[in-house]
Amino acid sequence: MSYLTQAFRTLRKTPGFSALVVAVLAIGIGANTAIFSIVNGVLLKPLPFAAASRLVAVDTIKNNSPDDTAYPDFLDWKAQARSFERLGGYATAAVTLTGNGEAASFPCAVVSGDLLSMLGVAPQLGRTFGDEDETPGAGRHVVLADSAWSKYFSRDRAIVGRSITLDGDPFVVVGVMPAGFEFPFDAEDPPEVWLPVRASRLLSQWADQRNASFMKAVGLLREGVDVRTAQAELATIAAGLAAKYPRNQDRTVLVRPLQEVLVKDYRLGLLVLLSAVAAVLLIACANIANLLLARGSARRREIAVRLALGASRGQIVRQLLAESLTLAVIGGIFGAAFAVWAVDVLVAVSPLQIPRLHAVHVDGGALAFAAALSMVTGALSGLAPAFQLSGSNPGDSLKDGERGGTGASGSRTPGALVVAEMAVSLVLLAAAGLLVRSLVELQRVNPGFVAERAVAMQLLLPGAKYPNAASMRAFYRRLRDGALSIPGASAVALSTTLPLSGSNVDVGYAVEGRPVDPKVRTGAPLFAVSPEYLATMGIPLVKGRAFTERDNENAPNVLIISEAMAAKYWPNEDPIGKRITIGYNDSGPREIVGVAGDVKQADLADRVKPTIYTPFEQTPWPFVSVIVRTRAAPESAAGALRGLLAQVDPMQAAGEIKTLDQYVSRAVATPRFTALLVGSFASFALLLAGFGLFSVMAYSVAQRGREIGIRMALGARPGDVRTMVVGQALRMGVTGLALGLAGALAVTRVLESLLYGVTPNDPFTFAAVSATLLAVMLLAAYLPARAATRVDPMTALRTE
Amino acid sequence: MLISLRNVEKSYPVGVGRTYVLRRVNVDIKEGEFVSIMGPSGAGKSTVLHILGMHDSAWSGEYYFMDQPVHRLNPKQRSELHKKHIGFVFQSYHLLDNLTVYENLEIPLSYRNVSRKDRQSMVGDILDRFQIVGKKDLYPNQLSGGQQQLVGVARAVIANPQVILADEPTGNLHTAQGKEIMELFRTLNEGGTTIVQVTHSEVNASYGTRIIQLRDGWVVDD
Questions:
Q1: φ, ψ (nearest 5 deg) of residue B211
Q2: Do B56 and A315 touch (CB under 8 A)?
Q3: Where are the alpha helices (DSSP H) in A14-68?
Q4: Residues A177 and A146 sit within 8 Å (Cβ to Cβ)
Q5: Which of these, A76, A292, A345, B200, is most buried using a 10 Å CB contact count?
Q6: Cβ A521 vs Cβ A63: under 8 Å
């Protein structure tokens, strides 16, 4: 009979035990496979492009950090660099499709002529762009994503060659990319169409300006050229440009592998998740090893008989391993099914803006991982029991009438495994505790504005229909006045962008009377706002005055600065009346009329940045957000806003409509997701470790029934027995706790960049998680201790 | 000589001293003998048997089995020697609960790497010889104690050992069943198999040709 048949039969004999082990393994292997699928899909898998390993990101470096690139710089790199087979550029924007049913606004990518062909993905219909699309005056062409082709054109194969209207301009569709193609990667808003730079009314106006940085560049290295060589060549070219153009003096270039750049912000978080879930599996393995040891102890006699019948130690080890591997394989099969479900759920609920996340699924690689993990798990959990049992002396077990030996229970292995489980659990708990505390701290951060009961609608006006400031002003006035009549609206304001919305306008500025270092660009977030903005948003006015209706295009230029900017330039002076020039159409110096409270711009965890507010009437932009403060639930105003827009301009599509609460909530979504997952893994680990301690203690109490019976017959009180059992458990637990604390002190340092408002070795968190672990230990020990006090001395002694 | 024990001793450390289970045991057993080891509880009978069966390796002295110095062999060599020449019968039968009668009989052969085909014919032969063909698909808990011990003896002889070591083989059986087993041993002995049994029973000892008396670990009579 094969080892496998025997294993199946043995496991069938103890269905409860087998089911428990399979369940623990299925959850452990499934969770690992799910997280591995995400790590594999995002970090490890090559990008889905031809020659993906030769693709590099080429960034302009300004003030030591990557920045966007000016289109003329990009063209110079392209003309001079020999390291690249091709060099492409792109920027993201939004466009509005009209003349095709209801107007629709969606993300688009504005690209250089050969970007799409460089990526090596053939269109499913038509063609992509060519160099001819980069020449000034080229026809307006557009390539559709498969999703846009489906959504707006019902997969009409005759779409190629047809003219469609984007932002009021006619565009000829030249091609449709295949399903699944995405570039640039954007988990939340993948581009629906690609336009050449020259065809974009918004971006083409900056295409010849060396001070307008709006592009990112991607290069395909020539065969045999490495990143370092390309970097050296581009650095030389950048130095040449700096010598030629004063504006380029503070700019250099950085070449990095594209995949590395795409995932750098998510690598640590994902690896922390993978480590946490791997730790859970290790604890599960230790638990199962202990269960197998305890059960093996009951099988000592069977093993001894097999040895007496001639089985070699190797044969016994193989048979016991066959059992643990069978359990692991069954657990792995259920685990893989669990992983398929878990990946779908994780991808669906994940707020992470991780590139390629929505394309992640459990594939062949993940299944192979699950299979390998099952084997490793089976071996890890089965080896210790197999070696321990096969090494026992059969003579001791086979002597008839011999008292039940201590067997495995007499060994130190179960205790050592429990100590290890406790230690690993504490490390995980500490990590989870720190992430949760960090999240709490983050949620306590005052964003600087009142998020409750306010809704905002983003809009992008097409340049063809609204070609100048006057037409934009007229549109926005009508919209604002109409919004005031929305039922329940208590205030209405306009702003180019919104804090925490993910989009921002950053302008360069110069403070009058302060020296300007041409090598250092001073930039600040700019909000062009209507007079009611500060009051509607609940941003306090600290000094001076707010904008009024009189601050229009005919009035002197004014601005309001944030407290951070006031503190930076006028720490001991009144900034009101001082003047600042901003980079807006050479509009000249502006007088500071007020100081507003600081507002978190990009992230709640970021330090507040000096910020500039200008009157919208003096600095109109084609994009704007309409904010409506409501007396009731803000969601109710969303429909009214859409209706209003349809009245003001039926051809204008609404952009994103969200409550301000949603923006704040999105700002903590990533830390919340990480904390939730690590917290779940840590809770599961704690449960397993508690169960591990419980099972070892319960088994120990069962083995020591006779000893306890004798103690009680000699006068031990229940309290004495309880103390004895709990004391034994506490010795293990406290050792685990101490080791875990040492481990946590070392390990939590890697979390530093994920934490906010809490240090990696936060004493409060460490004390809290230690107390939690101690409480679980006491509970896990108390139950067997209570059972021990119920041992009837007479029965215990008689059964022996 | 089939078996020779020379000054075999076994002891456990207790505190600073040692407790002896066997003291200077010297025994010779010739091929074809039917030996009964007797003595009160705790005399060391089963210990001697497990040393002879090579299940126990924690002892001192010299043990020669078919002129091979067992005391000098490594565990693997001992295991090979034991597999080739020794069968064991236990008081509590020790059949494997989750295997059928057929599979219980097959298992010693599989541990000896006997081919599947040969296993089938050897198990078939032994089922015939012990007249338990009808029980081959039953599990141990479906058999009476006597039937289980019958299977236990069949399992011990299936690999044709020269020696059968039996530890109180009838201890858990009633008289009629015990007699049947002892008759079986007699038949096997008449067929040339050496039998060494541990027993408390004078009746069982009477089936043998020689009695070794142990007391407190010492051989007091042979």
A1: -125, 130
A2: no
A3: 15-39
A4: yes
A5: A292
A6: yes
Q: Is A394 on the interface with B (CB under 8 A)?
A: yes
- Chain B: residue nearest A3 by CA? B110
Do the Cβ atoms of A398 and B159 come within 8 Å?
no
Q: Which of the pair, A410 or A603, is modelled with greater confidence?
A: A603
The DSSP 8-state label assigned to residue B147 in this structure reads H
Rounded CA gap, A193 and A201, in Å? 15
pLDDT for A401 equals 47
Contacts of B142 (CB under 8 A, 6+ apart): none
DSSP-based three-state secondary structure for B219: strand
Side-chain half-sphere exposure of A381, counting CA atoms within 13 A: 34
Per the structure, the count of domains in chain B is 1
Neighbours of B9 (CB within 10 A): 15
Whether B110 and chain A come into contact, CB under 8 Å, resolves to yes
Q: Is A305 on the interface with B (CB under 8 A)?
A: yes
Tell me the CA distances in angstroms from A116 to A60, A132, A144, A260, B185, one per residue in order.
21, 14, 12, 20, 89
Probe site for chain A from B8, B10, B96 (most A CB atoms < 10 A): B96
Provide the pLDDT confidence category of residue A411 given band limits of 50, 70 and 90.
Answer: low
| Entry pTM | 0.74
Rounded Cα–Cα distance for residues A449 and A597 (Å): 9
CA distances to A295, A707, A718, A785 from A725, rounded to whole Å, are 21, 12, 11, 5
Contacts of A345 (CB under 8 A, 6+ apart): none
Q: State the DSSP H helix or E strand holding residue A392, giving kind and residue range, or none if neither.
A: none
Residue whose C-alpha is closest to residue A255's, from A224, A221, A211: A221
Which residues in chain A touch residue B155, judged by CB atoms under 8 angstroms apart?
Answer: 309
DSSP structure string for A215-231: EEEEEEEPTT--HHHHH
Domain of B21? 3-221
> Measuring CA to CA, which residue among A57, A79, A78, A53 is closest to residue A68?
A57
pLDDT band at A352 (very low <50, low <70, confident <90, very high): low
User: Any residues with CB less than 8 A from the CB of A597 and at least 6 apart, and which?
Assistant: A448, A539, A540, A541, A542, A562, A563
| Residue B163 φ then ψ, to 5° | -125, 135
Test B58 with A10 for CB contact under 8 angstroms.
no
> Residue A506: its pLDDT value, please?
81
A398, closest residue in chain B (CA to CA): B90
State whether residue B74 sits within 8 Å of chain A by CB. Answer: no
Nearby residues of A224 by Cβ (< 8 Å), 6 or more positions away: none
Strand partners, A326: none
Q: Which of A66-80, A502-516, B16-30 has the lowest mean pLDDT?
A: A502-516
CATH code, domain carrying B41: 3.40.50.300
pLDDT score, position A591: 95
Q: By mean pLDDT, which of A343-347, A387-391, A611-615, A676-680 is the weakest?
A: A387-391
Find tokens 């016994």 and name the residue. Answer: A316
- Which pairing describes strands B194-198 and B34-38: parallel, antiparallel, or unpaired? parallel
Q: Does A15 touch chain B (CB under 8 A)?
A: no
CB of A405 within 8 A of CB of A300? yes
Helix (H, G, I), strand (E, B) or coil at A390: helix
Is the ipTM higher than 0.95? The answer is no
Q: What is the mean pLDDT of chain A?
A: 86
Per-residue pLDDT at A407: 36
